[in-house]
Design brief:
Mean pLDDT: 82
Largest sheet: 5 strands, antiparallel
Shape: globular
Number of strands: 26
Structural class: mainly beta
Number of helices: 6
Helix content: 10-25%
Strand order of the largest sheet: 1-25-24-23-22
Radius of gyration: 25 Å
Length: 408
């Protein structure tokens, strides 16, 4: 055994040396970015964060600089940095690491001042494998920090796959909204419908399971499709589930022809489901219906947060249309047309938009550097324009700018 003493001594040293070289090398190659103000006041963009992705790592860029998602994590936390990529998940990992172990589906959480809950679908990373028909319900009381969990069986079929859209808790009753999908041949999935599970947390049992809406139907030459609109306040209490439902004529086209956006559109509406009363209604207003029926060559972004539905139809050929609807009151509270053709011609096509309070935030591509703009909805004035650039002034190279966050 003595002849191996030198090898045993050298192995730990080599491992430490290689690790040090890797960290040092990585540090030397670190690229830092900043959102450089091109027009307006930097203070107007204080809450703006642009998400960029490089080599699979998400970096947040602001007027103050850039911050990688792994910079604030310990070595062990870095191992699952890609799983806990959103700010709320990072916060929960920091506050409740024991409870968060193995839980990373943002839509499957519920949190208020009394309880933290999670619903696990027992899904595989490889969706070609069969998914279990069990749900694992995990609950932790905020006051006593006591954790508990139990399982329920759903009526999911073996060839179906379910994804969770929302979880709500009230008075020891849990509501779980899921999207049920089916695959005839992997990886092609088609949406079957949206189901609501009602779970008794006291007796740890499934009280009810029902399909509240079909995802796609086809009859009399009309195809009806429905898409869920996620609530931006995913973790907290919400009264409603919002759906975008469209009816289109089925148009036969040869391969050389393409179907234009809104071609064959018969009707489009926003449907609202009251989670706790189990009742449906449609947001009825002529301005909203006309807005939904517009021919939007670049599509429409729809977001739901704080009881408000914000819609933005970005166009290169006509004014940009922005509308905000109060869902509970079924009332249009803002309806504006913004002449943004010139800024799009100069700065490039809009690939992401966010309506926040009285402002429209745009992320644009078309220049070598990703750019952002802030427009005041009331006046249509462009308050701010900025570009993402490297702090060392070197070429930015290729980065994928794929999102905007606005922090208050």
């Amino acid at each position: 055994m003595k002849r191996y003493w030198l090898l045993a001594t050298l192995i730990p040293f080599c491992v430490i040396a290689m690790g040090t070289y890797y960290v040092s090398g990585t540090s030397d190659q670190k690229q830092e970015f900043v959102l450089k103000t091109m027009k307006g006041l930097e203070s107007d963009a204080a809450g703006l964060r642009i998400k960029v992705n490089m080599d699979g790592i998400t970096t947040t860029v602001s007027t103050k600089g850039s911050e990688s998602e792994v910079e604030q994590l310990s070595y062990l936390e870095r191992l699952d940095a890609e799983s806990y990529y959103e700010d709320d998940l990072k916060r929960l990992v920091k506050e409740q690491r024991s409870f968060m172990r193995g839980k990373n589906d943002m839509n499957a959480f519920y949190e208020d001042d009394k309880v933290l809950a999670y619903v696990d679908t027992e899904a595989h990373n490889d969706v070609s494998k069969k998914q279990s028909n069990r749900l694992t319900i995990s609950i932790m009381g905020k006051m006593d920090q006591v954790e508990s969990s139990f399982q329920i069986r759903t009526n999911k079929k073996n060839d179906e796959y379910i994804g969770i859209h929302d979880v709500q808790v009230k008075d020891q009753v849990m509501k779980v909204l899921v999207n049920r999908m089916r695959s005839d041949k992997y990886p092609q999935f088609y949406h079957v419908g949206y189901d609501m599970y009602t779970i008794d947390l006291t007796n740890k049992s499934l009280l009810n399971s029902e399909q509240i809406l079909t995802a796609e139907t086809q009859a009399d030459g009309i195809r009806t499709t429905t898409w869920y609109i996620s609530d931006k306040g995913k973790l907290g209490p919400s009264e409603y589930a919002i759906f975008d439902r469209s009816e289109n004529k089925i148009i036969d086209k040869v391969e050389s022809q393409t179907v234009k956006r809104n071609e064959g559109l018969v009707n489009r509406e926003i449907r609202v489901y009251d989670i706790w009363n189990g009742q449906w209604r449609t947001l009825q207003s002529e301005p909203l219906h006309s807005f939904l029926m517009e021919d939007n060559s670049m599509g429409m972004s729809i977001q739901f947060a704080n009881q408000e539905l914000s819609l933005a139809a970005i166009s290169e050929n006509k004014d940009t249309h922005v509308m905000v609807v109060h869902v509970a009151e079924n009332k249009v509270i803002r309806d504006v047309q913004l002449p943004l053709q010139a800024i799009q011609k100069e700065w490039g096509r809009v690939n992401y938009s966010v309506v926040e309070k009285d402002r429209l935030y745009l992320l644009m591509s078309g220049r070598p550097k990703p750019s952002a703009a802030i427009i005041e909805l009331q006046t249509g004035n462009i308050l701010y324009q900025g570009e993402v650039e490297r702090k060392d002034q070197n070429s930015i190279g290729y980065i994928n700018a794929n999102g905007i966050e606005v922090q208050n």
